[in-house]
Amino acid sequence: MDPGSVAGAGLVIGAFFLVVGASGLVGRLARALPPTVAAGLQLGLGLSLAMLGIHLVEVQIWFGIVVCALMLVLMRFPRVPVALVAVIAGGVFGVVTGITPPPSHLALGLHLPHLVWPIWEQVWNGVERAVLPQIPLTLTNAIIVTAAVSRQLFPDSSSRVNERNLSLTTGLANLMAAPFGGYLMCHGAGGISGHFRFGARTATAPVLIGLIFLSLGLLLGQGGYELLRTIPSAVLDGLLLFSGIDLALSSKPSSYQGAELFLVVLMAAVGVAVNPAAAFAIGVPIAYGIRHGWLKV
Questions:
Q1: Which residue, 159, 187, 191, 203, has fewest beta-carbon neighbours within 10 Å?
Q2: According to DSSP H, which parts of the chain are helical?
């Protein structure tokens, strides 16, 4: 898609999630779903992230193995910011050893983004190629499963991280970012699981991350992207691997039995083989069939 189509897609999907969040529709949908649906989606997503991490680590196999082993050692010490240490040390090591290219041009300045205003043809192209395929994925992974994971990780303070607020902030973020060239974005269960796994417990962590990226873009422009490219893929994929494992384990499939366990495993398998939206479409009617006693395994 060209920049105009990306902007058009961001504006449409932002408006969609703002409306379904403000109307309360997404909250009613989430409350109507059996817990096995969220557990199946969560398990499938965690396994998919872990498998992706393993697949990408293979690109730098020996370095990836060493990185994962060092992370496991560091994670034994709760006060060590493992992700931050891995990213900084990995970037330095990557440049020194030549695994990653050094930034070619770093010049401080003010780099403001250019506004992008799509025409109707670009809006429709963005809807067809990005919005329609993305809505079910965002609804499942970024809203329903993210809210479920938040309740598990922060049981005493997760009331504000509900489906309605996740939908509203997804909509607002896309509406604000799209005209500045921002790609479609959303919350993510894998992201919050990764933050928690590597030490984040308050809103300070994502605020700091946002300020860092904002500074890189405004002060270094393209140089900020080149600076991020110095981080070897093995480091990022190791982080992805451990985040996926944590997300899968937090679905607690062992707490289900019989037909419910079958459904959780089935949805996880479909989520890994196809995508979370397909798992959602298959799992919901089966879940209601089990709830009403129509199906027994």
A1: 203
A2: 3-22, 25-32, 35-57, 61-74, 82-97, 120-126, 132-137, 146-153, 163-177, 189-197, 204-215, 222-228, 233-249, 258-273, 276-291
Retrieve residue 177's tokens: 């970012």
- Residues 137-178: pLDDT tens digits? 788 888 988 998 898 888 887 788 899 999 999 999 999 999
* Structure-token match 């996880």, residue found: 268
Please give the C-alpha separations between residue 17 and each of 1, 33, 154, 280, in angstroms, as whole numbers: 22, 19, 24, 18
Nearest to 130 by CA among 6, 275, 281, 276: 6
The distance from CA 1 to its chain's CA centroid, rounded to whole angstroms, is 22
Q: Is the pTM of this model over 0.85?
A: no
Tell me the C-alpha distance between 38 and 34, whole Å.
Answer: 8
What are the CA-CA distances from residue 282 to residues 147, 192, 287 (Å)?
21, 26, 9
Please give the Cα distance from 210 to 64 (Å, whole number). Answer: 27
Q: Cα–Cα–Cα angle for 174, 175, 176, nearest 5°?
A: 90
Q: What is the percent of the chain with per-residue pLDDT over 70, rounded to a whole number?
A: 99
